[in-house]
Amino acid sequence: MAKVENISCSECAQLHCYRHNKKYPKSCLTESTEQALVDSTVETYRGDSIDARVARAAAEVEGLYYCEISRVEEIVAFAKRIDAHRIGVASCLGLIEESKIFIKVLRAAGFEPYTVLCKVGSVDKTDIGIPESLKIQCDCFEACCNPILQAQLLNAEKTDLNVIMGLCVGHDSLFMKHSDALVTTLVTKDRVTGHNPAITLYTAHSYNKKILDPAYLKSL
Known about the structure:
- This protein is α/β, with parallel strands linked by helices.
- It has helices at residues 16-19, 29-32, 35-46, 50-65, 71-81, 96-108, 147-156, 171-178, 198-202, 214-219; strands at 86-91, 112-117, 161-165, 182-187.
- Helix 4 packs across helix 5 (71-81).
């Protein structure tokens, strides 16, 4: 493997920053980051801003329920702790049934959910410059995803927290960019692994060796 010039946390074998029970390596980001920058972020978490409330709520949920509750339940617990009431759900068409179940969970927990599907606006893919040959099913109407409109419609509903349900890579990025409310993800789409992308990493040295093959990756 080629030598890494710009060393970062993925090259660390110590992880001393977590427990302070080892030693920092020479190239540690904690060591090289200016203390003033560290202090400014910590001061933010100590305050009364929304960033501080979110940081403390996330830590509280982690501390109380670590390895005890699912991510569905974690979102409920987190939303309660930031006083969220209106929960937006940005759903992929392919996960609308799962979204409907999640909506039932949110309503049972006392929240007011509002869902916007990825195909909202219903504009054919060719209208945004995608050739017919790149449709999943050619020679018929096939709506493009519209994550910006999803975000705008949830913004209009003045949601307190938005939850991504399986938006495509890139579409999720646009949704997060244009959402006024905080965004978290319940389902990360991966059609090949049943929406469990970590499996590809777990099997990188066995069944999925191709993902470490430079020639294969350059062909994508």
